[in-house]
Amino acid sequence: MIRARFAGVSLGVLACAGTLLAQSPAPAPVPSPGSSPSATASPRSPFRVEVDVDVVSVTAVVYDKAGNFVRGLGPKDIEVLEDGVPQEVNYFREAKGEGAERIPLSVVLVLDCSGSMRHNMHFLQEAARTFVDKLEEVDSALVVSFNESIKGSAEFSADTGRLEQFVEALEAWGGTSLYDAIHYGLQRVKDQPGRKAIVVFTDGADTTSQMKEQEVVDYARSVEATVYCIGFRGESGLLARSPRGFLRHVAQETGGAYFFPDKIGELIKIFNGISDELHNHYLLAYTPRRPPDGTWRQIEIRLRERKDAEVRVRKGYFAVKKRRPAVPATTSN
Known about the structure:
The protein is an alpha+beta fold. It has two domains: about 1-25 and about 50-95 and about 280-320, no CATH class; about 105-280, von Willebrand factor, type A domain (Rossmann fold). Helices cover about 20% and strands about 30% of the residues. It has a six-stranded mixed β-sheet with strand order 11-10-9-12-13-14, with helices on both faces. Strand 1 and strand 2 (about 10-15) form a beta hairpin. Helix 2 (about 120-135) packs antiparallel against helix 3 (about 160-170). It starts with a strand and ends in a 15-residue tail after the last strand. Residues about 1-55 have low confidence and may be disordered.
């Protein structure tokens, strides 16, 4: 969870719901549900108030006409709209702002290892290693390989050597379960801290997935993760069932980007560009004016003055009401 601090309040920023905590700078350990307040309370224990509020967090990438990231913006420079209604921004932060604590990145590399990759696997491995090498100290990654089956490393890791070993062990064989692999990657990243993203590479259409294309798109819309897609024209030729439309769609819905290089040698440049973008963005949060009702809400962010720049964000979110835990019944003696 990202801890965003402002005006003495710690705001847990979540996809559709969060918990607002008002507390002193040095919080005491939270007692377990089964313990009584008297067992853990002390005169020095800070006052702690916890209430449920609905908070929407948004990752925004702002770039000029030349494709360069626009820095130095503040909350007064933007306008946030939900279903066309202006919203009040509670929190705004630049990922690499001066003096700011770095926002951790949790990223899943979803890499095609189907049989058609046999002649290009070393290019993909080199690009993936370059991406891993650019991870920062607070970041962690997971590598997922797929053909007709899906294989993922056991857990997210900040150990670049360990991640590179997984990449180097990739072998090309079998079919292409593209949809299943993206769904799996989203499942693995959805509860990770910080900015969440998956980077997908494939050289052909799906041939062996159990999930359907629209099912994956719908699931991606419900997860607070940005999807970046790279589709290469491999041995399969991307002919009858090209995945380009799907890759473009899932990237656009989640505020990501898509790339269709003509040369496999362009992969390193593309992976480097994705890495740079993942570390250059704005994180903002707002409390919706309308209470959650389970519907899809469209998100739009506008720049008030910078007409030379554009903003890319996820298209929206499902306004699901946060369920409060049941309060145990008390009995009198």
